[in-house]
């Protein structure tokens, strides 16, 4: 689109509205990048678009503010010089199966190289995955060194507690027919619900059934790798993993009403051990705050739990959530296995999670889980006993099932304690 026409609003909500056929269709699940084709969500050249939504969708409104205030050129395109992945990932055979990966673009980190010719020809293809390297340091890891549970090796783990990691950020890219299959609903029903629940933000969901790929305006995930990433996907490689759903209050601020940060830190410890023995450790951190109900709902539930007659106790833990949110949980682990398929992982040797839903989703996806590693009892904060008992009673992996009468006892603090 030329500059002169940029004052017009161009709707992409009907096939052919842009006056020309799309040049680049997406053939999801094809084995090579060339056959699959780039995901194009250009906002300034709607004739190119073959996807619904926009890149970095969760931040689209901030981008709008930047454009509206004049801080950002509306037709800015990223200069991708030197942004290539710091470690190679894939391609793995799972990338060529349209059913195995439906919620991320397996070529998302390689866009600048595999679609270089498209980009040079003016196509607005952008990475949806970035892979870099870092050092991390958490007080819990220093404690583990002091307690003798972890031994610094000068490579993966330093004496000062620094841990060398590779990390990847992944924005969601949804292949709508595949998402509908995963949830066993009709694609048209899925599209309609997405259209309605975003208050009509994306009209193409209902007017453009020919566009099969959607960049949803939600948070994605971050991966932390311990050890040699290149070993992933090879049959002999042992893998340890913690799959963690975001909990800002605990993860960042150390709030003691749940076991999130202690379990995350324990998972990282397990990952470091595995990497030191020649395997690979992996933490998957999903932006699904408060069981994907959001933090406002979560804090409302905390109040409802602590103010209810009889005090905060396990037997009413899920009911209080359901009263406020209408459901107990919206994380929907059906999409979670995609990231393991992306990494070529078919077996997880040490799985630092007690969630039956996460475990069930992995097994359903054909990924073997060898050993399940529960959080050590000593790491569970006092106020988190309610949550832990409730989850165990609801089917969490444990050898220590709480007695029925135990679930009726108030164990959580009152609001003003
Ligand atoms: Zn938590």
From TrEMBL:
Record domain GTP cyclohydrolase II: where: 230-374
EC supergroup of this enzyme: hydrolase
Gene3D superfamilies named in the record: GTP cyclohydrolase II
Domain (GTP cyclohydrolase N-terminal): residue spans on this chain: 8-197
Keyword Zinc-finger: no
Record-level Gene Ontology MF annotations: GTP binding; GTP cyclohydrolase II activity
EC number, as in UniProt: 3.5.4.25
Superkingdom of source: Bacteria
Chain residue ranges for the region called Disordered: 1-22, 76-95
Entry's Gene Ontology BP terms: riboflavin biosynthetic process
InterPro entries in the cross-refs: GTP_CH_N, GTP_cyclohydro_II, RibA, RibA-like_sf
Keywords carried by this UniProt record: GTP-binding, Hydrolase, Nucleotide-binding
Protein name in the entry: GTP cyclohydrolase-2
Native source species: Usitatibacter palustris
Primary gene name: ribA
């Amino acid at each position: 689109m030329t500059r002169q026409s940029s004052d017009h609003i161009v709707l992409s909500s009907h096939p052919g509205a842009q006056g020309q056929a799309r040049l680049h269709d997406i053939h999801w699940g094809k084995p090579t990048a060339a056959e699959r084709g780039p995901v194009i969500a250009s906002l300034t050249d709607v004739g190119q678009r073959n996807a619904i939504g926009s890149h970095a969708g969760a931040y689209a409104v901030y981008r709008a503010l930047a454009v509206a205030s004049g801080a950002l050129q509306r037709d800015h395109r990223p200069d991708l010089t030197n942004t290539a992945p710091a470690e190679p990932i894939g391609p793995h055979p799972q990338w060529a199966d349209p059913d195995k990966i439906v919620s991320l673009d397996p070529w998302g980190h390689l866009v600048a190289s595999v679609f270089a010719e498209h980009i040079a020809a003016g196509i607005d293809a952008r990475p949806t995955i970035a892979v870099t390297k870092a050092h991390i340091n958490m007080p819990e890891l220093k404690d583990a060194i002091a307690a003798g549970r972890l031994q610094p090796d000068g490579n993966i783990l330093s004496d000062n507690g620094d841990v060398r990691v590779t990390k990847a950020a992944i924005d969601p890219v949804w292949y709508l027919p595949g998402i509908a299959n995963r949830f066993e609903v009709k694609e048209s029903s899925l599209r309609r619900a997405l259209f309605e629940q975003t208050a009509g933000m994306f009209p193409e969901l209902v007017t453009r059934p020919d566009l099969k790929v959607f960049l949803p305006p939600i948070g994605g995930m971050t991966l932390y790798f311990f050890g040699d990433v290149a070993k992933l996907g090879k049959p002999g490689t042992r893998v340890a993993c913690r799959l963690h759903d975001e909990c800002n209050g605990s993860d960042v601020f150390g709030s003691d009403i749940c076991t999130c940060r202690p379990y995350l830190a324990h998972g990282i410890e397990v990952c470091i051990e595995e990497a030191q023995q020649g395997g690979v450790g992996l933490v998957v951190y999903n932006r699904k705050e408060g069981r994907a109900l959001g933090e406002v709902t979560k804090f409302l539930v905390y109040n409802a739990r602590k103010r209810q007659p009889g005090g905060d106790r396990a037997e009413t833990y899920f009911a209080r959530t359901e009263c406020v949110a209408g459901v107990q949980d919206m994380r929907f682990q059906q999409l979670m296995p995609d990231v393991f398929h992306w990494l070529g992982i078919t077996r997880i040797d040490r799985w630092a999670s007690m969630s039956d839903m996460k475990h069930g989703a992995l097994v359903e996806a054909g990924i073997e889980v060898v050993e399940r590693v529960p959080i050590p009892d000593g790491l569970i904060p006092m106020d988190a006993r309610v949550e832990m008992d409730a989850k165990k009673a609801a089917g969490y992996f444990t050898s220590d099932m709480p007695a029925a009468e135990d679930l009726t006892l108030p164990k959580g603090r009152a609001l003003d304690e």
